[in-house]
Amino acid sequence: MSDAPKTDPSTVTQVSLKLRDHTGSEIEFKVKSTTKFSKVAKAYAEKKGLTLADLRFDFDGNRIRPEQDETIDDLDLQDGDTIDVATAQHMCFVYLSLSPNLQYLHFRLSNLFAILTERLRATLKYLFPRYWLARP
């Protein structure tokens, strides 16, 4: 027998959570109250084409960290709650010499660099599996 605590089936409820990004778009997840938040966060990241490292989750001003393996019940999330999701901001600076004086152009590329890097990594891993298996 396992030593893991068993939850009473009568206390397990279905919870509807909305995850909202900075643009206001929401994705709704219907999960059990015993589901780990990390599972919801991973599903959200997959739908958005991002990695968990690119996302930050906040509920009522408190940060939720998916890596802590807390359940929906542990976080006191209720049916219909909305979790705010922020994405990491990646910046890129481009320097152009248009005259003897340098002109600085600043381009803010939010998430584009991270998405392209992750997709390139996945493509290289697919094309060269032996190389990736040999790496530590």
TrEMBL record:
Residues 15-85 form the Ubiquitin-like domain. It comes from the Eukaryota. SUPFAM superfamilies: Ubiquitin-like. InterPro entries: Rad60/SUMO-like_dom (IPR022617), Ubiquitin-like_dom (IPR000626), Ubiquitin-like_domsf (IPR029071). Gene3D superfamilies: Phosphatidylinositol 3-kinase Catalytic Subunit, Chain A, domain 1. PANTHER family: SMALL UBIQUITIN-RELATED MODIFIER. This is Ubiquitin-2 like Rad60 SUMO-like-domain-containing protein. It comes from Catenaria anguillulae PL171.
